Amino acid sequence: MKALNDAAFQQGLHPVRLSAVLLPVHEVEVRATTRTSRPYGLIDKFIERTIAETRVTAVSEIAEVLALQPALVDRAVRVLRRIGHLPAHSNALELTDLARESLRDGHCYEERREDRRKIYFDGYRCEPLHRRHYGKPTSFLNYAEARALEEQDSRLVMLPALHQFHREALNTLARRTDRAEFNLPSSVENPQDVRPEYVYLRLYIIRALARGGNVRHLAYAPDAGLEYDEHLSELCSSTPDITGFLDQSTAPIADQERRIRNWLGRLGLTGIDPMRHPDGSWHVDLPPGEFHPKGSRQESSVGSFLDLWTVAVRVWCEDPDVRQRALVARTRMILRRAGYRPEELPDLVSHLGAQLEHPDLDVHGLRALVAEAGEQDLAAELDRYLERTSDTP
């Protein structure tokens, strides 16, 4: 599974278990003023500069200074009032803060009111969710939908929603320089929450062990492409309401082993003993006959983790021929996958080396291994990559 493999080979941890949860989230409808920018009209800019640099306060006086028809200046003044550069309900011609900022920056800023958007904050610390959760695939569920989904899927658990939304959280977000990363661009001003309510986000949480035995919980959202979410991972690792649930739901070691043996039994492999490492992770060494072409299992699964509900287990095979075929299969998958970008190849190859126990594998080393396996088409493709990168300054 993608999330388990990321936890092991990208984050450098030892996955023990994957839990499927529904994370409570504050959905906050926000009413705000938006600011847009456009080039200044020539007359508008001169009128504002005249007001700023002189003491004139009447249309006729501005017309005289600029040598323009009063009717033309009057029309421009009405436009400046409408866009918030002059007071709307006063005869005085005094620049607003918006007008002064516009003159300072050389762009005509305009305010458009009644912008409404939804901002999402986690249900425990009221910290904003990254904009990756705002894409079309993301589906936030209301309470009834979340409860119905929990009843349909026995693995899925709704985490408790006990905390009220803190209104200061929105103000804190508005002050952040990176607020656009959380669906609040700088063009949105004076945001005010209208109606906070609870919704739920589907989340996979991987219980993993770091060096020294420290427990960490890594979060991956299925609707956001199963990308590692650093913020939600830190939340899940440090929030007692979440860690307490995850600790209670961790199966005893004997139950973990029983689950793995039952899986092996369904494969007809009752003679294989699962191995538990000192770090708490498990692996099984499957015989070569389980893999193609004799068996039904793809060689590309060698080195990957499998989710068995209460425990995660790494699939392995010590046979050198199977592991070589696994390397070839995984290389072909990398180079043929949709959306493959050549600049990603070094990281992908390093990841592959970690999975198949080729320490410090790089593109040159991979090219040599696939050529040794007789896969000349893959070797040629890697040659083309190496030629392109050698020409890059």
Short descriptors:
393 residues; alpha+beta; Arc Repressor Mutant, subunit A; Alpha-Beta Plaits; 4 domains; six-stranded mixed sheet; four-stranded mixed sheet; 39% helix; elongated
Descriptive account of the structure:
With 393 residues, the chain is α+β, with helices and mostly antiparallel strands. It has four domains: 2-31 and 116-248, no CATH class; 40-106, Arc Repressor Mutant, subunit A, CATH 1.10.10.10; 253-318, Alpha-Beta Plaits (2-Layer Sandwich); 321-391. It has 14 helices and ten strands. It has helices spanning 2-9, 42-53, 59-66, 70-82, 97-105, 143-152, 168-175, 230-238, 240-248, 253-266, 320-336, 345-355, 363-372, 376-391, and strands at residues 14-38, 108-122, 156-158, 188-209, 215-220, 228-229, 275-276, 282-285, 305-307, 312-316. The strands form two sheets. Strands 1, 2, 3, 4, 5 and 6 form a six-stranded mixed β-sheet that branches. β4 (188-209) and β5 (215-220) form a beta hairpin. The protein is elongated.
List the helices and strands and how they pair.
Elements: H1 2-9, E1 14-38, H2 42-53, H3 59-66, H4 70-82, H5 97-105, E2 108-122, H6 143-152, E3 156-158, H7 168-175, E4 188-209, E5 215-220, E6 228-229, H8 230-238, H9 240-248, H10 253-266, E7 275-276, E8 282-285, E9 305-307, E10 312-316, H11 320-336, H12 345-355, H13 363-372, H14 376-391
Main beta-sheet strand count, sense and barrel state: 6 strands, mixed
Number of helices: 14
- Overall geometry comes to elongated
The arrangement of helices and strands along the chain is: HEHHHHEHEHEEEHHHEEEEHHHH
Q: Termini separation (Å)?
A: 37 Å
Q: Could you list the spans in which at least 5 consecutive residues all have pLDDT below 50?
A: none
Mean of residue pLDDT values: 90
From the alpha carbons, calculate the radius of gyration and give it in angstroms.
30 Å
Into how many domains do the coordinates divide? 4
Q: Determine the structural class based on helices, strands and strand pairing.
A: alpha+beta
Range of strand content: 15-25%
